[in-house]
Amino acid sequence: MVAQMEKTVVTVNWRCAQPGLWIASHRAGAAGIVVERWTEGFEVTSASGRALGTFPRLDDAKTALERAVAMERARSAMR
């Protein structure tokens, strides 16, 4: 199962909608958002509304969402 997830490639496109808000999308639609919490870091939420955590750097937050999208795609492919 892990090998199949590692081979799943999903291209996530990022757009900065306004200062402190990044919107992610992929071919199948919405992927989620990253919101800057000025004193806490960057909060990540998936398109389904699942909180993925708060990260100290924007790149870490984006990576977390991209991994979550890839894992969801891999799970869907296994069904």
Helix content: 25-40%
H-E string: HEEEEEH
The residue ranges in which pLDDT falls below 50 over 5 or more consecutive positions are 1-5
The first-to-last residue Cα distance is 12 Å
Largest sheet properties = 5 strands, antiparallel
Q: Sum up the overall morphology in one term.
A: globular
Class from helix and strand fractions: alpha+beta
Mean model confidence by pLDDT: 88
Q: What portion of residues belong to β-strands?
A: 35-45%
Q: Give the strand tally.
A: 5
Number of helices: 2
Placed side by side, the strands forming the largest sheet appear as 1-2-3-4-5
Cα gyration radius (Å): 13 Å
What key phrases describe this protein's structure?
single chain; 79 residues; alpha+beta; five-stranded antiparallel β-sheet; 2 helices; 34% helix
If you had to describe this structure to a student in words, what would you say it looks like?
The chain is of the alpha+beta class. The protein contains 2 helices and 5 strands. It has a 5-stranded antiparallel β-sheet, with helices on one face. Strand 2 and strand 3 form a beta hairpin.
Question: How is the secondary structure organized here?
Answer:
Elements: H1 2-7, E1 13-18, E2 21-26, E3 29-37, E4 41-46, E5 51-55, H2 58-78
Short description:
34% of the residues lie in helices and 41% in strands. It has helices spanning 2-7, 58-78, and strands spanning 13-18, 21-26, 29-37, 41-46, 51-55.
